[in-house]
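note to self — DONT lose this again. spent like an hour looking for the file last time. sequence + predicted structure for the chain T wanted, 135 res
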Amino acid sequence: MLHAHAANLSHPAAVASPRLADVSATRSTLISPVVVAGAARLLEAGLIALAGVIVAMAYVSGGPGDLTRYVVASVTAGLATSAILSRLGLYSIGAMCNPMRSIAGLLGCWSMAAGAIAAAVFFMGSSGTRVGDFA
């Protein structure tokens, strides 16, 4: 019996890795869905904050205080967007595998974040963009 098992192991098909269909059919996954969702949240928040910082560095003229304000706003927008998308359940594996089903939530959340940043820049921005400058 032991000899038959050893003969089976020497055969290349017995030790070969399972086919992709066999792996996807099992309950266990290689990466936890929590880790995938966390990585997606971190990546998206980082990209939003980085985009805001790049735009601020390219277009904000003034002292370092003005740039700091925009950097803080960009990081806040990235974190807020990540939190809202998480609350909407858009970081689940099902939503990430079928993004067309959740595209309305994604676009709505990104639009709200962009609108909130535009409003913050308008109401608390540097000279020439404050509400008081128009009155």
